[in-house]
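Bit of a strange request maybe. I'm writing a small parser for structure token strings and I need a real example to test against, not something I typed by hand. Could someone generate the tokens for this chain?
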Amino acid sequence: MFTIITGAQFGDEGKGKIVDLLANEYDLVARFQGGDNAGHTVTVGEDVYKLHQIPSGILVGSAVLIGSGVVLNPFSLMDEINMLEQKGVVLTPDNFGIDAKCSIIMPYHIALDTLSEVSRKSKIGTTKKGIAHAYSDRALRDEIRLEDLLDETVFRAKIKDIWPAKSQTISKMGGSPEYILSEKTISEMLAIGQKLKDFAVDVSQVINTALLAGKKVMAEGAQGTLLDVVHGTQKFVTSSSTIAGSACTGLGVGPSRVSNTMGIVKSYITRVGNGPLPTELTDEVGTHLVQVGREFGTTTGRQRRCGWFDLPLLKKSINLNGYTELALTKIDVLTGLDPIQICVAYELDGERMDYPPLLTKDLERCVPVYSEMDGWTEDLTDVRCFEDLPKNAKEYILTIEKLSNVRISYVSVGPKRDQTFKMAESREKEIYCNKFARNK
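Reply from user aminoacidic:
Good idea to test on real output. This should exercise your parser:
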């Protein structure tokens, strides 16, 4: 069984929480793209884990892998390993592996990322983690891989070949190259390489061998579908492919092995950084979503922009990923809002659109068309099954399911493990929103 989990919006949908919930049903959990610009927050009891590169399945005892589609920051990876060990989660070659083909995020990538963003007239809102420049070097065949970091002779030879051009570029952009790649930094990286040596594996072989043996594998994505480097809201996107098909490439697994794909979708929508967000709310409702939902970036701490649920964007994500099921998170955050709006379409230049326009510049001009539903005032954080939800919360969930035409399998009502429940097969189908026909 091979399951792929991706975010269905702009990231921050709660993927880490859902992966953590389901991971004990899987033998392997593998990360397939992105870098330490991603942030997955998982709450276990009183402990809060913020993971950026290591799959959150490690917290429930699953073996975890980092695939070759990931770009790896060795310094932040060691910080994560140390943090986990301090909390009693010890990584060994039996429960953790990194593909030797992973590209390494070098200090000059981070410098170039920062200088590039500063020089832009139209800011992207990058995390300045060097991700784009690491992926760029991979495409240019100028990358340094984990396998290189394990061999001092090879690593130093590659640095000698690559660094002069990087140094010159940094100087031209107003940076100070002499502080970026010192002998001290090189020595520190080589020392980390030796610590990671026993974790280097061929992830493709490990996963395919496991699947052939009848084991269960989960592929975990970072960021969200709408930040995909090709299909997202260019240029306000991440630097890798975030959709389900990327899991096959980033892990080296053929598409015929995919069993199902799950999309994680928030009960509203958020976005960090710049780019279009048609339903964005800058009023008291937006403030409610930020404060109650604690909408601040795991990686950067930046406040997330918040808006009403956007169905047209979800439809696009469903097409791009081929979702077989959805997990709906943070419905508890909507408590106290009345009425609640769902964006069911857009208006652009006088024309109604049920699907996002092709061009980002056109999406920026789209005006949401809302349908209104009654809200609820009941606290949902102690709810543990669909039947115990208030009627209007049930209607909201079932309406999203009906409109998306994809089954909602899980619902989350808070950050803790026990605040996510599985939807029963015998859900109350008959209460599909009579009030939903009221369009504003």
